[in-house]
Amino acid sequence: MTITTRTLHTTAPDGTPLLSHIAMPINTPKNGQSPAILVAPEWWGLVGHPQEVAARLAYAGFVAVTMDIYGNGKMTTDAHQASEWMMQMLNNSNELMNRCQAIYQDVAALAEVDGRRLGIAGFCFGGKIALDMARLGTPFKAVATFHGNPTPIIPATADKFTAKVLVAHGAADSMISDEAINHLRTELNNAKVDYEIDIYPNAKHGFSNPHADQRARENGVDLAYDEAAAKASWDKMIKFMQDNL
Length: 245
Description:
The chain is α/β, with parallel strands linked by helices. 37% of the residues lie in helices and 23% in strands. The two termini are 24 Å apart. The model has no long low-confidence stretch (mean pLDDT 96).
């Protein structure tokens, strides 16, 4: 049985069209509403992997929405272009978070979504987005990150950060340092956040993405898929979301 997909049209505060990708669960609850998970993608934008993630989440029973952060559905497999787009967003963090909030509000308002049960799963750049949205008070029940950048826009505080957190990090990640992960631990402890950080031995940056080896070859960047870490972290994330949404 195939899942149903469509585009979620959101207008950013600056007028940019945001064309997020929705994957609907096969089985709809009796009340017609399902929990939803936003998918914050890697710096590549709306390429194949985050849409594959959305499909897998839909098969697991969630409405899954891959967020169009860059606008107009932009995507690339070129690291220089991806870095340029990402830095444009990071250098204008207010607009980035405004776009994220606009998408969140549109997802929460979907007729098929139980707006009280929303989570987010972020990958790499998207991991930072997921944590920053929660830091700013977005009322997620659950936040999961995979090889994500934990550097905060503003540190988490107990009055704003309400979500439980699951972090999947690769021990051999050359892009996200052990020091950055330790800073995240301290930050979440100080904010009294309920969290777990899992370190996967020998896993590199991008370990959850089956296309990581190809992206590494094409761009000369230190990425690698790790099948064992990908499966273990995915299975744990699904249970985490089921338990908290």
